[in-house]
TrEMBL record:
Metal-binding keyword on record: yes
Binding site for substrate: 123, 161
Record PANTHER family: BETA-GALACTOSIDASE GANA, BETA-GALACTOSIDASE YESZ
Protein name: Beta-galactosidase
Keywords of the record: Glycosidase, Hydrolase, Metal-binding, Zinc
Residues at the active site: 162, 322
Organism: Rhizobium leucaenae
Top enzyme category: hydrolase
Recorded family membership: Belongs to the glycosyl hydrolase 42 family.
All copies of domain Glycoside hydrolase family 42 N-terminal, residue ranges: 28-400
Annotated GO CC locations: beta-galactosidase complex
Keyword check for Cell membrane: no
Domain Beta-galactosidase C-terminal, residue spans: 654-711
Record-level Gene Ontology MF annotations: beta-galactosidase activity; metal ion binding
Amino acid sequence: MSDKNIAKTPSAWNTVKTDRFLVGAPHYPEHVDESYWERDAERMAKAGFNVVRMAEFAWHILEPRLGTFDFDLFDRAIAMLGRYGIDTIMCTPTATPPRWLTVAHPEILRVDGKGRPMSHGSRQHCDTASPVFREHSRRITRAMAEHYRDNPHVVGWQTDNELNTSMPESYSKATLSEFQIFLAEKYGTTGKLNAAWGGDFWATAYDSFDQVVLPIEFGPTFPSPGHVQDYHRFLAFATARFQHDQVEILRATNPSWFVFHNLGGLRDIDFRGQFTKDLDFVGYDIYPMLYDEFQRIGNHAKVQALHLDICRGFSGNYIVPEQQSGFGSQPGFCTLTPEPGELRRMAMSSVAHGADGLMFFRWRPAHFGAEIYWMGIIDHDDVGRHRYDEAKQFATEMTALKDKILGTYVRMDVGIAGSDFDNQEAHKTYSIGLPSPQDDAVLLHQYCYDRGIACGFIHPEDDLSKLKLFYVPHWVMWQDEWTEKLQAFAEQGGTVVIGARTGTRDEHNHVIRQTAPGTSLSKLAGVRVEDFGRLAAPGANGLFEVMERSGGLVVPPNRPAESQRRTRRFKIGNQELTAGHFYENLSVDADTEIVAAWSNRYADGLPMATSRKVGKGHVVYLGTYLTPELTAALAERLFPTAGVQPLVDDLPAGVEVTMRMNDERKLLFIQNYTDQPAGLAAVPPGKNLLDDGKPVAGGLDLDGYGCAIIELEG
């Protein structure tokens, strides 16, 4: 690595500052007899791998007793790999503390909301907020760093492993004490704390910070949204602080090392704060066939694209420390198995969406433990079959094309507001059964994905100038400086679309006292919200069904007839559509155009969507949530005037298209995510870098799971 990202502002346009494409696999030499090590290293080298990652779960080996360190096993494994030209990324092993530590200090265990401490025998069972656990984390990190300070084969570090994936929350005594300290430093006085949390509601005020409790759900009913918001802010703070302890030690020991983290569940981490700024780059583990929360999309290729586009919005390009390579399982779940050709195709899609390095999980499967059927590149019988062949092909291709790929960012014509920790958490504190901003955004992302339109997620603080259209999906917390960014974007010709409920709460989760959407957004959009209300979800029989499924209060659903009577419809252009989830009745300024109006019941004729000209562009306001039909109608109306066009005309179903680019080149990534051949009738002229630079002009044929990277002319 060179010219690191440290101290740079997180941006969706950042690239990983590296002079090689890292490709390899997580490797666990402690899981096999040493007699396997050399042939493992030899096969990795033949596959074109240049790096492995190791030791993230090996604290018990590295420090078998307090203060007694033993690095011999990993020293020998690293040396063996080094003889075959393979470097090592070491990991701090703090996701799995050894049993001697939890026996000596049971107070470091996480505690769930029912008061049950977590147990040894799994992972992530210790509380990252605990000062005692932090002390031991620093000790093992310092010992490892000092031992490997001058080892030429150790090139970088991963902090911990998938922080907060298993269980981000804790209700331990340590968490409570640290939370109280956090609040005292944040607010200074309990008067300010009580004002922020609304202490005059339900007599929830405090006289001192040591009286503050942790927000437990249904204890017996709901805590204040401000209380919950600050608890999750604290969890994010504690997570960043825990990692910062380790990063400080690693950087002081050897400044030439790169440092990253491999994120999994993405919970209770503020990606635009210290957590990301401490790192050279971020890593995202991607298992396209695993993510249940996205499976409603129906296609794991779309799931992968959405997941990585969301992640790229946090801080730009990334590496993938764990890429699904085969069947994966733990005792309670399992994934589908990638078919021949899919391993390479999924890896290529990760690169298309911003990966500047990739490691296949894992080199070989374990024969014991909770992941015995999590398959790797090599099978249980020590044979490398089609997965090895595909990994080898991918590694060879990426090594050959690194000078073309590295230094390019992913094109976005349509940007969706994302990557904001406070808005993500604010929705959770008071969801009232409504879709989250991300749930709403998925509809626009998938519309663009299916049509080959360059789309992704980006924070409004970021550089919006490369976009053509920017959509804000009902961010309830809004800052006036973001309005200034939207105005500047529109004045230069951009199209801004603001969703319902945006700007309706302040930073303490209080409803604002101005008419929604707040002074600055009202002025920009030329609208005011006069009334609002809840609507049934599209296809639902009753208003409160979503609340029941979400675990909220059990409220008998409305009778279907009543739900039908309260359906809201609107006219946009020559279409009449049904609204879903939420409605707002708007009043508009004289210079604001009404582009859609409610068309039934008492609201007939009232504005639903508006457009106001700002400079060379427009600001559109929506008084409802997206539905598939509304998304299509808006795209048909707004995309042509915004200059949004598909990257490829007449994109066939089952084909994904993405572009990476910089000032010197444009690379069009095309992948067929079906097992059947696909043909594209019109591809921009260029040369296919995955086919020996063969010229492409006009049509392009792809085999099942086939891939192409077209370097465009001009």
